[in-house]
Amino acid sequence: MSQTPQVAAPPAIPGAGGIVVNGLRRSFGDVRAVRDITFEARPGRVTALIGPNGAGKTTLLLMLATLLTPDAGTISVGGHDPVTSPSAVRRVMGWMPDALGSWNALSVRRAIEVTALLYGMTTERARERADELLSLVSLESLAQAPTRALSRGQKQRLSLARALVHDPSVLLLDEPASGLDPAARVALRELVRGLARDGRTVLVSSHVLAELEELADDAVYVEGGASVSAERLARAGAAARPWRIRSIDPAHLSWSIADLGVPTADVSTIGDAVLLPFASDDEAASFLAELVRRGVRVTAFAPAIGDFERTFQGLGDVDGAA
Amino acid sequence: MIPFSRGVRLVVTLELEQRVRGIAVYVLLGLFTLLVAITTVLLWRVDEGSGSGGFLFSTIVYFVLLLGTLLAPALSGAAVNGDRDAGTLATTQVTLVSTTQIVLGKFLASWFTSLAFLVVSLPFLIVSFALGGVPARTVVASLLVLLAELAVVSAVGVGLSAIITRPLFSVAATYLVVAALSVGTLIAFGLGGAAVQTEVRSTSVYIDPETYPEDGSTEAPTCLPPEVYTYQAPRFDLVWGVLAANPYVVLADAGSGEFDASGYPNDLFGQVALLVRGAQVPPETEITYNECEDFTGGYSGEDTATAEETWNSTTPSWFVGLAAHVLIGAGLLWWGIARTRTPAGRLPRGQRIA
């Protein structure tokens, strides 16, 4: 899976599907929720929307989902402008909100059916579609249960099914994996990857970076209501990150690390693993070679955090240094 | 976009499935039926003598209006903001139904629910009609006005639920509107009439008791000099228009107009409507009582107007009141739609759109 920052990718043709956002701004009274967001999410790829809580992710998604007008800036979703032609956008866009609302007196099947009807499908087609989606999100056994009886994770899957009802070409997923058990998480990842493979544009917001790491092709970083510039991303991506090292003989490993001149302040131990920061992959590889040369029997040598998380943490460090 | 009526129908179906559920509504309907049944039995005895179902019919219709206006706010007052709190409004708004379809659908669903009270009272209405004496005009007019008034309360509830952010406040505000129209108009009428008073001059000419003639005597009695005193009388004729906005008065004014042989109303509508019609008549500012003249000239007995005469000489007002109600309901619905429309420009403080 390639995980290049989206800025390195060639620009999509404007209006040819996908999501194109330019200089977006939106305030609520004195609160400037979104100050300046610019990015592109291309068809056939999963784009991660990364940022801390309160960074403006949900406000951005509400604007993409035709629910909120921006104060300034332009949006194109699937080639349509959500402000001037919301119904054209709604036809091609599926939105899974972070708030898990469901019609709690309706059965799971009926909730999907009603959504299909609200998208203008015939009764027959809506019934078929409900069957398809129930099996897609593995809720067949709960089809007759009222939605209020669902667990958080099950509601999450129902919400996803609803977002997919009209087979949208652009998908906006707000925190889709929160509340899911590991098996459902894997299923969700496979599902979302599959949807992107079919040529859909998928924008996933989350603050669980490890999760996005396995899911997304590209990433958009949002901080304090603004998207992070390419230059800052490059700097942050180059920041040091910790690597996790395990050995059959931990004592030998510790001794070797000390002997190789690593300051003790940099070394931390979690369980039977040692965490060491390396400024680059190159430096890490050389260190591993040195350990092996010294006869340390290494069983694991891997980055402790993913690319997204390193960049995310790097952004904080860059700010701290500035 | 989904065709307009189909979209509205979908929302109505969804609302009826989702919102109007549970045993609470059925318990209320059961209690209501019991109440109407008891009233029917009691009034039957009253009406049996007169051979007319007028009082029974009008009482049941009033019951439906009372229960409907008491329950419709609870059913409709959280229709939009309750969905927003539950997180189901936004997910509906991103589909192809428009905000207008959503809000109108919610209004219709709430109206239909309040009509359930009318449906369960139908057997009793038919009984009262079978007793006779209820003209078709009264039945048609009062039921149409009842339907309209229940629609107005539903429209106010749904409209306010779209305008006010918190469900609790919008339900309370809907009750306040209902109370203002049902009770507030009465208070305003009473206070208004008392505040604007007019001076009445009362002149009385009595016979000197010393010279009061014996029976059979033709001798003319001595008249005392006229006694004049003044007092203040409330001017209800200036404020009666306030009462025209009362839903019970609208219903009464539209539904009555039937009098028995002696010129008295033969149902509750007529009695209520007459109170309002009577208030239109300005008080006389010159009152003379001449005992002396009455004695010599023979008692002329100034004819007091019968109910029917008062009725015929005063102005009907129900269409004004009803039009005002429809205007309030439609206006609030329209405002509610405007406030709920997406993509939303302005959000009230603290409101989350999802």
From TrEMBL, chain A:
Keywords (A to Z) from UniProt: ATP-binding, Nucleotide-binding, Transport
Endoplasmic reticulum recorded as keyword: no
Pfam families linked to this entry: ABC_tran
Nucleotide-binding among keywords: yes
Gene3D superfamilies: P-loop containing nucleotide triphosphate hydrolases
Molecular function per GO: ATP binding; ATP hydrolysis activity
InterPro entries cross-referenced by the UniProt entry: AAA+_ATPase (IPR003593), ABC_transporter-like_ATP-bd (IPR003439), P-loop_NTPase (IPR027417)
Domain ABC transporter: residue ranges: 19-249
SMART domains to which the protein is assigned, alphabetical: AAA
Entry's family note: Belongs to the ABC transporter superfamily.
Protein name: ABC transporter ATP-binding protein
Species the sequence originates in: Labedella endophytica
TrEMBL record, chain B:
Keywords associated with the record: Membrane, Transmembrane, Transmembrane helix
Bilayer-spanning residue ranges: 23-44, 56-80, 111-134, 140-163, 175-196, 318-337
Stated name of the protein: ABC transporter permease
Taxonomic lineage: Bacteria, Bacillati, Actinomycetota, Actinomycetes, Micrococcales
